[in-house]
Design a protein that fits this description.
Blueprint lengths: L1 H8 L15 H9 L2 H15 L1 H15 L4 H53 L5 H22 L4 H20 L1 H11 L2 H33 L5 H52 L5 H43 L3 H10 L3
């Protein structure tokens, strides 16, 4: 095994790879970042818990202004709101920098391991240096998305799902009926978004497989292009065009439906909230807090959708890297690329 040769040839390097790479990407995430994931998750939890505080401050500021409270009291509420925004933004800044460092460290670790594989191969006089070179070139091309996923692998869903849960929980606490209406109008997204995203992912995989076929055929046909080869090329490029247009239609349709559900939620809150306000059963600040809360839900929901797409891609690329590390030959590389094409 080349991985064992790496451990023997580079005694000062991380020997964690001597037993092989973990079977799944989350096992790899724990091996390269370990307890850092818990620290990142704690920072993410602090960010989403602080999400509720500005909503409550907005409600109190609006109600205080309409109630003709003293200016000093309103000024204190506004100062508290600004302080909470500063605190939340500062924690999120630290979280993003911390994530980036963890991701870049994982990328650097993989690159160092690839380098040690090359050194070990040279030191042990590999039977087929060209095969090793092809394998290492594949690995180097795939380490960036794998390592980049490490930083957000755990803290990403914790943050996005936490914001969704905390905002809806706060709404339920303020006014259950309005919150249930907003949640009801949000629920269809839990159905159509995963379905549409799954179709998009299948089209992306098919597009890349087709492009790889085009590239392989062009590389083997220079100097001998015939009519059939040309027709095959045109048929496949037309297929790629159709796949791309289908992806665009699905993607923009999904964005349209998500925005529509968001605005329907706001319209529902204004309708029900305005009715309660007119009857004197609700404060106007509560309606403002609801509208602001719905605005805060839109971005983390979209980020959560993006996270699962990145998870699919990173998992497939990690499997490719792991396969090549285990047995880097041209046949292994070709089979792994075909199996994990994205």
């Amino acid at each position: 095994m080349v991985v064992q040769a790496v451990a023997d040839a580079a005694p000062g390097h991380d020997r964690a790879w001597a037993n092989g790479m973990p079977a799944g990407i989350f096992g790899y995430v724990w091996r390269v970042s370990g307890w850092h994931q818990l620290a990142l998750s704690a920072l993410a939890a602090a960010v989403f818990l602080l999400t509720m505080a500005p909503l409550e401050m907005q409600r109190r500021i609006v109600n205080g202004a309409l109630g003709k409270d003293e200016f000093a009291a309103l000024a204190m509420l506004c100062a508290a709101y600004a302080g909470l925004a500063l605190l939340s933004g500062g924690i999120k800044l630290g979280l993003n920098v911390y994530r980036s460092r963890i991701s870049e460290t994982a990328v650097r670790t993989l690159r160092h391991t690839v380098y040690d594989m090359a050194v070990a191969c040279h030191a042990n006089h590999c039977d087929d240096p060209q095969s090793q070179g092809q394998a290492l070139a594949v690995v180097l091309a795939e380490v960036e998305p794998v390592g980049g996923f490490v930083g957000v692998s755990v803290s990403g869903p914790v943050l996005h799902a936490g914001i969704l849960a905390s905002v809806f929980g706060y709404m339920l606490f303020l006014q259950p009926w309005m919150a249930l209406l907003a949640l009801l109008l949000f629920t269809p997204q839990l159905v159509f978004v995963p379905l549409m995203q799954r179709v998009i992912t299948r089209r992306v995989r098919e597009r890349i497989r087709t492009l790889r076929q085009i590239g392989a055929e062009m590389a083997g046909s220079w100097g001998g292009l015939d009519g059939e080869t040309r027709r095959t090329f045109e048929r496949r490029t037309d297929h790629v065009f159709a796949l791309n247009m289908g992806i665009f239609r699905l993607k923009f349709s999904m964005n349209f439906l998500m925005n529509l559900m968001h605005h329907l939620g706001i319209a529902g809150v204004l309708l029900v909230g305005g009715w309660y306000v007119a009857r004197g059963e609700l404060e106007i600040g509560t309606v403002v807090a609801f509208i602001s809360g719905l605005a805060r839900v839109n971005d983390p929901w979209g980020d959560l959708v993006d996270y699962f797409r990145e998870l699919t891609i990173a998992s497939a690329k990690y499997d490719l890297v792991r396969t090549v590390f285990a047995a880097p030959t041209p046949e292994t590389v070709q089979a792994a690329v075909a199996r994990h094409a994205l």
